Amino acid sequence: MKFSESWLRSWVSPSISTQALVDQLTMAGLEVDAVEPVAGDFNGVVVGEIIAVAQHPDADKLRVCQVAGGADELTQVVCGAPNARVGIKIPFATVGASLPPGPDGKPFKIKRAKLRGVESFGMLCGQTELQAGEDDSGLWELPLNLVVGAELREALNLNDNIIEVDLTPNRSDCLSIRGLARETGVLNRTQVSEVTIEPVAATSDKRVDVNLGAGDACPRYVGRVISGVDLSRPSPQWLQERLRRSDVRSIDAVVDVTNYLLLELGQPMHAFDLGKLSGDVSVRLSNTGEKLTILGGQEVELNDSTLLITDKSGPIAMAGIMGGEPTSVTAETQDIFLESAFFNPLAIAGKARNYGLHTDSSHRFERGVDPDLCLLAMERATELLLQIVGGDAGPVVCAERAADLPAQRQVRLERSRIQSGLGFAMPDEEVLDILARLGLVLVDSDPQGWAFSVPSYRFDISIDADLLEELARIYGYNNLPTTDMRIPAVIGLQTETVLDGDRFDRQLIARGYQEAITYSFIDPKMHRLFSGEQPAVELLNPISADLSVMRTSLIPGLATALMHNVNRQQQRVRIFEKGLRFVPNGSETTQTQGIAGLIYGPREATSWTASKGDVDFYDIKGDLEALLELTARDISFQAGIRDYLHPGQTAEVVASGVVIGVVGALHPQLLRELGVSKAVFVFELDLAESLITEVPKFVPLSKFPEVSRDLAVVVGRQLEVSALQSAMAAVAGENLKNLKVFDVYSGEGIDPQRKSVAFNLTFQHPSRTLNEEEINASIAAVVQRLEEEFDASLR
Q: How far is Cα 621 from Cα 598, in angstroms, rounded to an integer?
């Protein structure tokens, strides 16, 4: 909500600066988003009046004006504004004046000039040139009652600021100048000068009766006919200016007054053209299929739960949201029917959004408007309208169902709750003073506490915790005593057998991955793609149909994130996620922590030094090995099968004989379903099993030389190399220090059904040098074992 500081200070004006006022409101929970001056930084601009106008002799679009208001009786100014004419009052920047800075950031100085051969002694200004509005169509036409020659800033009170507050939904009572003034008065112990509102006597017997067909949604509806209005009369300048400074555009006197009341008192109002109404007015819920053309010409089809204002012809307004176009007030309107109502917030909440609308009225009604404000606002609006557009006021018609109006609330506050809730004992007189200034009325008191009656405009106060909040706000959060928090802390036993999970995060980030966080619930289609017929936990009340089952794996979420990135032209993706997986287990659900990763696209980021080519299976396997090396456990990989992974590029991750995860390439058919053109490689580990570590043990370093031998054998093409390594390690003896594969070959010179695998074997004894016979015996045992078990032959 935007408002001008001067308007607020006309209600309550504490002796504090603008910045102090802003800080005060923010600390009281009414956060101030912005403060900006009403007009730009200028001086030397006075109220001028055009006395005479003549056409420029050498320019069709320029006029030579004689202007009153300067140092001389008349001053000659050359002007190109289309609305320059005799009799209007305008801003007159005299020679020596300084206007707001332009694009270069420097102030614009007014000097004596010659335009197309005619001398000009000053400048006539528009709103944009003074940064006092957005109208750049011509000169800013000022009210005719301003004194010629007066300083413009003083005449229009431009030494003012526009303050924008961002109110939380519970503080609907402050969505008006009256509410903000009330709050400012409480904070500063200053009297609030409310506007005097007297009942306006009826001078006409015209009336429109009201029927409450949905009393629980609208328990009070106030209406009044004002006949014989003259809408050719514009709103007074002071009213238009207050609206403008609140970011509301002036339209006509009737609309301006209703908008003004919304800002001043917080009561949304609407005016109908009485001549366009058919009979009495009813408030009821809509019927399916009914339609209404709202202001702006948009036709909406109403659902069966929208609160309407209707006449005999059908809907004429969406209650609390927007009026209808057919009954709107126009320049030809002579009689109006003015409405002011209380709508139950639950009846309005969310309804505007259902139709893609959001209005100032719905914003207030769905948060709560004071039910006692209707009659007061009607009298205030009547008074202003009669002053501006004239006419005769009819009797006030008030239809209400008292049983459905909000009940008077009482809240009890125990003295002990202040100590426990705020951390200190506030003196009784301070408690009573603060709550009294907030409008709460003391109805009962005893040694244990008090009972207060809550004012009708405070929808947010219903329990004693709300009163504690009010005490803290007004007393001042900065003034609350602070104490050191003392919580007994028991330091848990630290174990070296389980790795800190953050180590995995840091390792993956160091290798170029970024952490992703996805929903724990996924699309059933994605679940079937990755898990087939495996059951999943279904949500009873899902956010949407495509987020209706709990994930049994982290990979579908990463795949969804990949598609999101690929669809936005991201060519290289490396992401990982840690989180829970939810697997049905009979009538129960097993929740396990997992960690998963995904890589896609070029192996290295684009650079003139980067190698070409996309990632493959060995890239993600290398990342996984680097991750699991942190645990110092014996890690191996064995061929595996998963329906969603490529049959020839899938491996199970084995640690100390236990399968702890899987790594591989997504199945080509799955990639087609996802709409991804390149290979995608993933891994997923059981986090609890993966974090188990081997406690490091020191082994003395041998001072004796290593002996290295290479061995190449030809074996069946489908044989797993890990099986060969296990067999070789079993018979090579205790002096085998390292065994690794350094070459795999198949092709010319090798049986098509077989392959050649070359190993490097390193031997070392801790306390002596190994001799040739010992090495040869180990190699012979290895060759014999391979021949017997795998039908291997030396190459």
A: 11
The alpha carbons of the chain give a radius of gyration, in whole angstroms, of: 41
The encoded tokens of residue 135 equal 């109208």
Do 222 and 341 touch, CB atoms closer than 8 A? yes
Tell me: do 653 and 506 sit in the same domain: yes
- pLDDT given for residue 455 in this prediction: 94
Residue 794 buriedness (CB in 10 A; 0-12 / 13-18 / 19+): exposed
DSSP state of 104: T
Which residues fall within 8 angstroms of residue 352, CB to CB, at 6 or more apart? Answer: 318, 321, 322, 358, 359, 362, 366
What is the spatial distance between Cα 170 and Cα 766, in angstroms, rounded to a whole number?
Answer: 77
Contact in structure between 370 and 458 (CB atoms under 8 Å): no
Provide the pLDDT for residue 605.
86
Q: Which stretches within 438-554 are classed as H helix?
A: 464-475, 501-510, 524-531
What confidence tens digit (pLDDT) does each residue in 671-703 have?
999 999 999 999 999 999 999 888 888 888 889
Count of CA atoms in the C-beta half-sphere (13 A) of 226: 27
Surface-to-core class of residue 699, CB atoms within 10 Å of its CB (0-12 exposed, 13-18 middle, 19+ buried): exposed
- How far is it, in rounded angstroms, from Cα 113 to Cα 39? 26
761, 728 in Cβ contact below 8 A? yes
Q: pLDDT tens across 748-789, in order?
A: 888 889 999 999 999 999 889 999 999 999 999 999 999 999
242 shares a domain with 127: no
The residue range of the domain holding 763 is 707-794
CA angle 253, 255, 261 (to 5 degrees): 100
List, as one string, the DSSP characters of 284-308: EE--TT-EEEBTTS-EEE--TT-EE
In angstroms, the Cα distances linking 361 to 166, 184, 235, 321, 365 are 17, 24, 21, 6, 6
> The tokens of 249 are what?
């555009």
Calpha distance 489→493 (Å, rounded) = 13
Which sign, positive or negative, has the C-alpha torsion 520, 523, 524, 528?
Answer: negative
Tally of domains in the chain:
6
pLDDT at 134: 83
Mean pLDDT in runs of 10 for the chain (795 residues)? 94 94 92 92 93 91 91 89 93 92 81 90 92 88 90 91 93 94 94 92 94 92 95 91 91 95 96 94 90 89 90 93 93 95 93 90 94 95 96 95 92 92 90 93 93 94 94 89 81 81 92 94 92 88 89 94 93 95 89 95 86 90 93 87 91 90 94 92 94 84 90 90 89 91 89 92 91 91 91 88
Strand partners, 92: 46, 124
Residues 720 and 663 occupy one common structural domain? no
pTM > 0.85: yes or no: no
- DSSP letter string, 190-236: ----PPP--PPPP-------EEESSTTT-SEEEEEEEES--TTSPPP
Q: Mark whether 424 and 548 lie in a shared domain.
A: no
Q: CB-side exposure of 715: number of CA atoms within 13 Å?
A: 23
Which of 286, 274, 369, 276 has its CA nearest to residue 320? 369
> Cα–Cα distance between 328 and 418 in angstroms, integer?
53
Residue 435 lies in a domain: yes
Within this chain, do residues 730 and 759 fall inside the same structural domain, yes or no? Answer: yes
| 205 falls within a domain | no
Nearest 5°: the CA angle 49, 51, 57 is 120
Distance from chain centroid for Cα 388: 42
Q: What is the DSSP pairing of strand 89-99 with strand 43-55?
A: antiparallel
Domain CATH for 434: 3.30.56.10
Report yes or no: 589 and 535 within 8 Å, Cβ to Cβ: no
Q: Do both 119 and 98 map to the same domain? A: yes
Same domain, 658 and 728: no
Contacts (Cβ under 8 Å, ≥6 apart) of 774: 735, 763
